[in-house]
Amino acid sequence: MKIYDVANFPNPLRVRIALAEKNATSHVTFIPVDLMNGEHRTDAFLAKNPAASVPVLELEDGTFISECTAITEYIDQHFSGPSLTGETAKERAIINMQQKRAESMVLDCVAAYFHHATDGLGPALETYQNNEWGQKQKEKSLNGLAYFNTVLSSSTFLAGETFTIADITLYAGIGFAGFAQIEIPAELTHVHRWLTLVAERPSVKQ
Questions:
Q1: Which CATH architecture does the domain made up of 2-78 adopt?
Q2: Is the model's pTM score more than 0.85?
Q3: Of the residues 21, 25, 143, 168, which has the fewest C-beta atoms closer than 10 A?
Q4: Residue pLDDT, tens place only, 105-135
């Protein structure tokens, strides 16, 4: 299988961590996308993913799968090892809920702030910006982090005592926040504890 991505970008990072958690990185060929020069907006790439975003997974039969959650779901089911998306109906529901919250309350908000309220990827790619919207999303991301601090005050990971796709999403979101120069408040001690714990995982280190 192939994955079209940009190394170290937040969403590609999510998929790469998931692959590493399943010890499956060696089964994938990574194909870099020249996003800075607009390759993601070409007809050839839009045929793979009309949303013009990375990553995109290409299966052996020519199927293209985009959206990090969908790609990670495929990876989790396709490769052996501890589940990232849950085994029971209750586990899967809670993990899915927390993954969506990590995405919508932190990662997506940070992305909106970066693309609207900073220089982002530069004028050639940032063709529309709304600074007021971006600043509001920064505020929303900090509120999201405060929520997760409460969650982590009573559990090791976002969906309980097991590392899951929800933790991967929040970790990528916080990494993006650092790149966008959004400081994680010191009083969010449970988030900081969790960050230290996740950073020590082999999948994250590599």
A1: 3-Layer(aba) Sandwich (3.40)
A2: yes
A3: 143
A4: 999 999 999 999 999 999 999 999 999 999 9
